[in-house]
Design brief:
65% helix, mainly alpha, four-stranded mixed β-sheet, two-stranded antiparallel ribbon, globular
């Protein structure tokens, strides 16, 4: 293919992406959107699809500047998808933890808390800076900070693959696998203001620094204990991850320690083993471990989380098994199944993980064309997953959410291994199918994977989770409810409590002593509410009943009235013991007299 055609095709890709962004920007939400996918204009998705198709074709089929341009196009396209809430001018994105993180930004801004008082102030410090320096709202600053933390993922994954193998093919496939954003599973890792997930996207920076450290020249050694400028680079990057979320920094320490163990075993086996010639990892691992201990030792939040893990290990039925059984039964009742959900959320991850595992096995059996250094790096990454998987097992029986967060970190490593593995797989197939045939098959395969992963990147009814879109009217309704609260009356929501909105309104630290729900869960009791016993629907006390457009979508449409019915919600208007106090298109609050 001549340069003119390649230039034209690449230009069409960037123009298609620009058109997609322009159309999305001119289509702001008019209210709460149950699905960010169906609410975003079709023309935007067509532009994104065309841009990705061109990026995939040129990344696989070309080399040199055209491949680099195609990789940039693909990375920019996926970043655009991640940025859809910002581009379409969402007021805010994210329930639960996201609102608490917004509350910490409010604490920083109003001086209730300083960054060093928070265990992981990274996201919040960036958002506060963007808010103050950019003159934009705190809500928008937070979701923009998510994008800033995401970009290193699509930049550094292909750089790592290139540094390990020295081949453009591996870098290209690694870039494509990074576009799948496999660390996000929508069980415990999410695309939004969620610091544990946000920290995952910085891990490739640490791994790239690791590869640079292992491949450095011995002449750069200037200090005792094998310390060099690259050691300080590792510490600096590790500290950055610590400030975004400490769990992922612990995982980085585990990876470094695992590599130190592999080096020790290799040295015992043979002084001439390629791994034996690499700079030792024990010093960086120890320094990062000490840094974490010093940071965490005096932090109450860390002690509570650790105590919860230990408690979970010894309490019956707290593990994942019982939760899976309950959710599987609920899915069946609304016409879904765990198999369907697995296909949507984990099939691509399972396929890439399997291909990566088979590639590692082939590498150990000497069936690849990699040089000794590249084989050593593959061994490092593969064996690093062993202690990480052991930690997954501990979390699985202790705190299930942490287990799926661990899966997210493991898939950062598998993204790199999977990209290198795909390059070798389709390179091997070219011997049977010819290079154009193999490239075509590769493009079809990764395109299918990208469609499946990007359609589940955000929560949506497709995976039985409504989009966590917070509208301005919705937040204004909750703010008004909190402002007009009288006599310490408790709040109870329609399947979702008000306490997180309390964090966002007062500030997470500033509102620590405020009791929103009396410790009773903050949600109306299903049986009493459905029976029309509104006065007894929150343990017989006087309470404020809150319901948002998000609540109605989740309970009545996505869950198909599995727990709450439309009839019970509408009938509350006729109850003589109920008065509507706050109302707009996205939120309502009622004053309910208790029994």
């Amino acid at each position: 293919m001549n340069r003119t055609i390649l230039n034209t095709v690449l230009a069409v890709g960037f123009l298609a992406l620009a058109l997609a962004i322009g159309v999305a920007r001119r289509s702001p939400p008019s209210g709460y959107e149950p699905s960010i996918y169906t609410a975003t204009p079709t023309l935007t998705w067509l532009g994104v699809g065309l841009a990705l198709a061109i990026a995939i074709g040129l990344t696989i089929g070309t080399r040199g500047p055209y491949q680099v341009g195609a990789m940039a196009l693909g990375g920019l396209t996926v970043t655009t998808v991640v940025s859809i809430p910002v581009i379409r001018n969402y007021h805010f994105q994210g329930m639960g933890d996201a609102l608490t993180h917004l509350g910490w930004v409010r604490d920083f801004t109003q001086g209730t808390m300083t960054p060093h008082e928070l265990f992981y102030p990274g996201l919040h410090s960036i958002a506060t800076t963007v808010h103050i320096a950019g003159g934009i709202s705190m809500e928008r600053a937070v979701i923009m900070s998510v994008i800033l933390l995401f970009v290193p993922f699509v930049v550094f994954v292909p750089l790592i693959a290139r540094a390990i193998t020295g081949t453009a093919g591996a870098a290209g496939f690694a870039a494509i696998v990074s576009w799948m954003v496999l660390p996000v599973n929508n069980v415990a890792t999410h695309m939004g203001p969620h610091t544990n997930s946000n920290a995952l996207f910085l891990v490739p920076v640490a791994l790239f620094a690791l590869v640079a450290y292992l491949g450095r020249r011995g002449g750069l050694e200037r200090l005792p204990f094998g310390i060099s400028p690259f050691t300080f680079l590792l510490i600096f990057v590790g500290a950055g991850i610590l400030l975004v979320h400490p769990q992922q920094m612990v995982n980085v320490v585990v990876v470094f320690a695992a590599l130190a163990g592999v080096q020790m075993l290799a040295s015992l086996r043979s002084a001439n083993h390629p791994i034996s010639t690499h700079p030792r990892m024990h010093t960086p691992a120890a320094l990062l471990g000490v840094l974490f201990v010093l940071w965490a030792a005096a932090n109450e939040r860390f002690r509570r989380a650790f105590s919860g893990l230990v408690y979970g290990l010894f309490v019956q039925d707290i593990g994942t098994g019982s939760e899976v059984g309950q959710r599987g039964g609920s899915l069946t009742e609304i016409g879904g199944s765990l198999v369907e959900l697995f296909v949507l959320m984990f099939l691509v991850a399972a396929i890439i993980g399997t291909i990566a595992a088979l590639f590692v096995l082939s590498n150990w059996l000497g069936r690849t064309q990699l040089d000794s250094d590249a084989r050593a790096y593959i061994t490092y990454l593969a064996l690093a997953t062993v202690p990480l998987f052991a930690m997954f097992i501990v979390y699985f029986f202790g705190t299930p959410t942490m287990a799926f967060r661990q899966v997210g970190f493991i898939y950062v490593l598998l993204t790199i291994l999977g990209g290198i593995a795909l390059a070798h797989l389709f390179g091997w197939l070219s011997g049977f199918l010819t290079t154009p045939g193999s490239n075509a098959l590769a493009a079809i395969f990764v395109s299918a994977c990208l469609v499946l992963t990007l359609m589940t990147l955000f929560a949506s009814p497709t995976i039985y989770q409504p989009t966590q879109h917070v509208t301005e009217q919705q937040q204004f309704g909750y703010d008004t409810a909190l402002e007009t609260r009288a006599d310490e009356r408790l709040f109870a929501g329609f399947g979702y409590g008000i306490s997180r909105y309390g964090d966002a309104y007062h500030g997470t630290e500033a509102g620590t002593e405020i009791n929103y729900d009396g410790g009773a869960g903050g949600q109306v009791l299903v049986e009493e509410f459905e029976a029309g016993n509104y006065s007894g629907a929150y343990h017989g006390t006087d309470y404020y009943f809150t319901v948002s457009a998000y609540d109605e979508t989740r309970e009545l449409e996505v869950y198909q009235e599995l727990h709450h019915s439309r009839e019970a919600l509408e009938s509350i208007e006729q109850d003589p013991g109920v008065n509507r106090l706050v109302s707009n298109n996205e939120f309502r609050m009622y004053e309910v007299e208790g029994e």
